[in-house]
Amino acid sequence: MNSYSVAKVPGDGTGPEVVEEAVRVLAAAAAAHGFEIEYHELDLGGERYLRTEETLTGADLQTLSNADAILFGAVGHPDVPPGILEQQILLRMRRELDQFINLRPVKLHPGVRGPLRDVDPSDVDMVVVRENSEGLYVNQGEFTAKGGPFEVAVQQSVNSRFAIERCIRYAFDLAASRPRRHLTMCGKTNVLTFASELWSRVFEEVGSEYPQVTTAYAHIDAACYWMVDDPGRFDVVVTDNMFGDIITDLGAAIQGGLGIAAGANINPNGVSMFEPIGGTAPGFEGTGLINPLAAIGASAMMLDVLGEPAAASAVEKAVGEVAGSLPSLRAGEMGISTTEVGDRVVSLVAESKTAGATR
Amino acid sequence: MSGPRTLFEKVWDSHVVIDSDPTLLYVDLHLVHEVTSPQAFAGLSASGRKVRRPDLTVATVDHGIPTTGRSLGIRDPLSKKQIDALLQNCRDHGITMFGLDDPRQGIVHVVGPEQGLTQPGLLVVCGDSHTSTHGAFGALAFGIGTTEVEHVLATQTLWQARPQTMAVEVEGALPWGVAAKDLILGIIAQIGVAGGTRHVIEYRGQVMHDLSMEQRMTICNMSIEGGARAGMIAPDETTIRYIEGRPFAPKGPRWDEAVAAWEGLVTDPGATFDKVAVIDAARLEPHVSWGVNPAQTVPVTGRVPSPDVYDDPRQRDAAVRALEYMALRPGTPILDIAVDHVFLGSCTNGRLEDLRAAAKVVEGRKVDSRVSAVVVPGSMQVKAQAEAEGLDDVFQSAGFSWRDAGCSSCLAMNPDVIPSGERCASTSNRNYEGRQGRGARTHLVSPAMAAAAAVAGHFVDVREWETG
Amino acid sequence: MKPVTTIRGTMVPLDRADVDTDQIIPQQFLKRIERDGYGEFLFYNWAHTDDGTPSSDFIINDPARRGAKVLVAGPNFGCGSSREHAPWALQQWGFDAVITPSAADIFRNNSSFSGLLIVELPHDAVSRLMELAADPTAEVTIDLESQTVTASDLEEHFEFHATAKQRLLQGLDGAGVTLTHADAIAAHEAERASWLPTTLEAPTG
Hints:
By secondary structure, chain A is α/β, with parallel strands linked by helices. Chain A contains 11 helices and 12 strands. Chain A is globular, with a radius of gyration of 20 Å. Chain C has a 7-stranded mixed beta sheet. In chain C, helix 3 packs across helix 4. Chains in contact: A-B, A-C, B-C.
């Protein structure tokens, strides 16, 4: 049977609790679908930083890059100055492991009461492909006359053909693999006359190689409007780093919140990282009130990328059913505890055996 | 060896390092792909050795890679491991690799010739039985197993028992509408799947010189299907013109030296062969396989045979089993057999001329609504050339899926598996049980015949179709 | 490689011609990067039903055949693909030898590297062995040194390549032996024409 090596990073706050539930669900999936997972646990996050001043060492990166996939909880600590953990752990990991795609499925499961009125669950079923390596996140810019009345701050957005094209190709391949085969690019061509213009050109060129995929363009402001007013128009969305950051949070809201929103930092040719997109949820740590469905959903994405589509599908389906059965997806309002949510998913997944797998 | 020699003997003799039995031969070109190499590299490392001649070794990925959605990464964890292993091994040993991001990537036996690596008089080996393809250039080219791959990596040599020689004399010209694929299927039908065992075949006759290099490759490719160790065609002007200017072909004064050396690569008058088979090309028709080995073919105008035509009881039993597997009844006209899938590709028929021939049949027509038809160019270069000629538009307008290069459905190690019980008209080289997927039913045909079957939904005699 | 001298054991008859290596070990098992673990996948498609359960009417699944050492097969055994996984699967299932009227070239060659003995006998001798092999307890003895096969009333001499025989008897294998001829290899290399292709100058596209 296939055996996968997974680097497990529980992290800070509620990270360990939700990762624990994800691991239980993965065990049930492995048993039902005939594979094995071997975990290598890494201690990364604010707690460790405060103890040792280490964020991400060479040895950590080696362990991460040797794994088949990374299951990540959350990092963050009130006593750590802002930016340190984000830059030195999260962004550094993405860069070093060349996880140039950020993938965020936005799906409203039947029975989940999200903030949108009169919307059918089938109208909220999209995936956002966010460019994950450049744009405004390159930390390039300058201050002039700093501190004075004439201070100027300039922030640079780097948009390279290389990174744009690989991101757009990924999005087209993803769209081609889905039933609706529709891809929308979000930009701001009327303002970002250089960056968005390059994006548009690449989008059109690559698009001509995918006649089976229908395409659309939306300015980012219009896209935000439609995410609320007409989410059904989106199937796969591709956009740059900053716009992607914004629109995926909006996506999280319309799909029922951080309790369910999962995401991945993907290196299609290497190691990818899967995580609940919510943070450490300070205040909920250790209370058994945090919703583990986001972390479990991330583990389903992980199974899909590892090459266990039947197991991935079973976990996703179970997440959907349990989500639809809860009175709310908010921490503390689910009506049952973190582990009880996990129990329900585990028992649904355990029933989902694969018939006659030949590997 | 004095006296008149065959082409095979000349090439063999020039590679002898130690003249014993078996003979130690020097390998000029070692082609490597991801499926038969991982254990070889592992063995090499385990014995603390390095690749002796990375400069005579080249690798590509072809067998297990997807032909669609490549930027999403390799989804099959086992294939991913194999491909990563080859990547790492090539890096460790300094071997040129045409990987997934390389515009030269493709099926190893398409890539070698188009890059100008395959040249007359070379000894070419690869861990793949269709290495015989390269014999079309007058090279001695044959498939080897993983242990031999390790041996070549370590020593750049191979121990081989000297094969015997067989001439396949093709008389007459190919009739209109009969492709190189039909010629080799006709040869195999005549000599049988073990007709060439322990022999190297030389394909001879005027018609060989009238064929293009791609057509010669189709013929030599299936030598193994006739049981032969290798197949060769003597190089000529056509060969020289094909090679000239290709990326790895010799240039300048070296080109002239090479061409001069190649001129002698022809069977001497008076040289004898251990075995001779004579094929009357004029009697050939487009062939379709009905059974589960490449000799079980009939002309498209014919019928599925009855097992009673076989005298040998074992052959008769085999035919009964074949008909059961293929769900065919004796006496059924081939023209009545409907297909579910059409696969245009493989190292046999995945080159530009094959795509042109198929596109000509398809132009202005549509794939039958019940058929799922796929075109897999043999290499990314072939794909680019086809796109430059607009062939992709022709195929896609008709309803074919236009893919990236790889072995694909020929042996279904990637996701392009033909479902159980479904029938596929395929331009590949083997119709064994389960070859294209467990329970899949393969019918081997030429590209034009496959394209026509895609449009009609069943086999047709492509000679009857107007291609205007 | 362990030396091959004498093989004695029960048989499995497979009275089919042209058994190709796709049947011996189907393509999905070629994705593995290991050299071992193929025994359970031998003749996979014939030995299992569509949903993966072992097929009770395929002979190698018959418990009475467990422990058999010799496969008796029809002509042109091992034709088709060059996959060395085919002899690996046969050996790892438990076979030490295959007796056939004729084996395909690449398969015969590949088998010699792991010591799977391929013995070619005339058709009538193979037919007699097929008859004897109907009894799962019937034994056959193959002696490589004397090149003989004995079973019940049958005693046959077989042809075998002299050098290959010595290699198997002594358990010699691999590049180590070849590299004792390093001088001869280097001498040949020095004489090779300068216009022969190399793969390292890499023009792209």
